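ugh finaly. both done.
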Amino acid sequence: MTNYFRITAHHPETDVCIIADSNGYFPKLWEFSAFLISKGFKVIAVGNSEKFSDGNISRIGTTDETFAIRACNMGKPEIVNSEITINGITYKPDKTA
């Protein structure tokens, strides 16, 4: 298993939501989640590369950067039929749902 992770989160103080990917920086998914939580985000969905569908987001290459924000918008993300959409960017956190 690779350590490619995707997290959807909302920052209540600023009312901003994000889809963020990390590829190679965090050894474990919980570490990526904990990092975002430490910055004030509330985690909405998490997944490793085997769990989530790519949707209309291409994956990032291996990087030593902390993470890449793939989508952001004001407010909370739209969630319909297990699919998350932020500013036109869509994916399923659990491709089996």
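ok and the 2nd:
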Amino acid sequence: MAKKRTSIYDIAQRLGVSVSSVSRALSDHPSISAALKERIRQVAEELHYTPSSVAVNLKTGRRNTIGVVVPGINRSFFSSAIEGIEDKAYKQGYDVLIYQSKDSAEREERIVHSLAGKVDGVIASVAADTTDHSYYNDLAASGVPVVLFDRTAAGVDAGTVIVDDYQGAVLAVKHLLRQGFTRIYHCAGPQHVNVWGNRMKGYLDTMQGAGIPIAKEYIFEGLNTSEEEGRRFAKEVLASGTLPEAVFFAGDFAALGAMLKFQKAGIRIPEEISVVGLANEPFCQLLATPLSSVDQFSYKMGYMAGKMMFDRLRGEPQVGIVIAPELIIRKSSLKNTK
């Protein structure tokens, strides 16, 4: 049987004073003498009294809760980032409420508006469908700090934690160039989203820096970086009659969809097409042809986003943090092993 929690009634009964006197003494009210305050505090310590979180929150205005908004939890990247956020929040004595926008701007706006008054802060990765992020500024203006991670948005009053997506693309394309490839395609995501825009820029700059002309067919901009969009990319490539030597995919799921489509069509990877993805999803190393990919360090990104949130709640200024990526080379991109 659980031991009964000590309450202010127990303290009042021990000292023979009113409950209201105990309550005022514990909140350091000036109407209670210093001597009585000290006696009450001593008894509270003897009885191992701790105030309830509800009472503390009512007093401080804090809810000890952080809202987290992500496009989806069915991706390892976001579930790992959430784990990082939760681990940091737990250490601070905070709970986490998790919401999925499912990449819908309408759904994301509804979620963000609903969080006002519910949470002390919001950590989010914006929906791919969103172009107007003003509701995050509305939240920040109401006194609820906002931290954006991975997918951020220009003009939003928020701290940010991102991986260097531009450098991630540079690492991937330079690796393919070192393999001797020049006909390198890019399967991209929507360019209004910062992560995919930065990856495209890294691809373009690296190709141009190597003096390689980029034909129109080299670039495919998908609706997202899902497995379905990867299959659609592969279908278009197969229909064109000209195969790339290599492909840099803006996301691992798109790479997976394309690889499966190519392999079904009898195209060998990496012998006929070399492939590099981005995210380093857990499935990359489990494929029949393990997928080379750029690691985003998702847990670290989430943990640092959580740390930034608690820094903000302590009144520290918001900042922008950029994490260095790392290319993990596996069989899918190693046509030439020299």
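summary for the 2nd one i guess: The CA atoms of residues 292 and 329 lie 5 Å apart.
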